[in-house]
């Protein structure tokens, strides 16, 4: 651990929030505190709904330095598509769908590497990747209309809400702490050689490196599985095929390094959410399946019904195999707009007696 100690801010130092409050107080603009605001033009046949709270009139120029996206048009100002009639179960083609071959590969390698995966802090996430996380389309689409690209948060009547590093860790089992997982992670061993570019499609890559059942798991196969898992299951890369972006991270994990993957995953999630809205749900990379798990955890009224007490240390695995609630877009939208009125200060859906392995033994 570094011995560097950050300088503590002076008590009189003005915070980001204080500066904004000061500007608004001094200029006293009219503010509409509603969550959804009618932005329709007079005599226009088109109904446009904007996301609030917002100023009545023009945005304060003095606040532009704090909100650089305020000058840009929001991607959703009105509903243009009947998402409930969308023909696909999962509109986003990058959403992770595990096939039989992948599940078998994970099971085979797990027989040799389970203990090591638990020590590193990736076991629960790898086990979770063997299952399809249903998008719960009606819930996902309805909640997305309350997402602000300016604040990177959901605007509900209970206040602004967003996914945190803690949420990612509890839902996936990934570590929030440890060696920083970024481009500076360097690992020379174990060695790994990529096949020809024609073999980088997911199915071809799997055929190249997945061993037969009963065979000894080589370090090359181990690294290959982690590369596949990071690309397809965790980060759901935009190329929809194997990239070399996560090679060093995979090698570091295979060598036993305890990486702080949760912050990196969260960063990709927020970037993916932005692209999903901009592209109107047609295409977006990132671990967006975590958002559905987050919805189910924080809003149990809309979550799959649990038949028994959760037995896994990874909250995401609690929902595997559970029957989805039969709700439509309208009922989900109504819940977020009218019925969600309180959660309680500091609310968290995660119980202390069901925690990831890294929290029980954080070393």
Topology (elements, then pairings):
Blueprint: H1 16-27, E1 31-32, E2 36-38, E3 49-51, E4 54-55, H2 100-120, H3 123-128, H4 137-144, E5 147-148, E6 153-156, E7 159-161, H5 165-172, E8 179-180, H6 202-209, H7 219-234, H8 247-254, E9 259-260, H9 261-278, H10 289-298, H11 329-339, H12 357-360
Parallel strand pairs: 8-9
Antiparallel strand pairs: 1-4, 2-3, 5-6, 6-7
Helix pairs in contact: 4-11, 5-9, 6-7, 7-8
Structural account:
This protein is mainly α. It has twelve helices and nine strands. It has a three-stranded antiparallel beta sheet with strand order 5-6-7, with no helix packed on it. A two-stranded antiparallel sheet has the order 1-4. A two-stranded antiparallel ribbon has the order 2-3. Helix 5 (165-172) crosses helix 9 (261-278), helix 6 runs antiparallel to helix 7 and helix 7 (219-234) crosses helix 8 (247-254). The radius of gyration is 23 Å and the shape is elongated. The model is unreliable at 1-12 and 73-87 (pLDDT under 50).
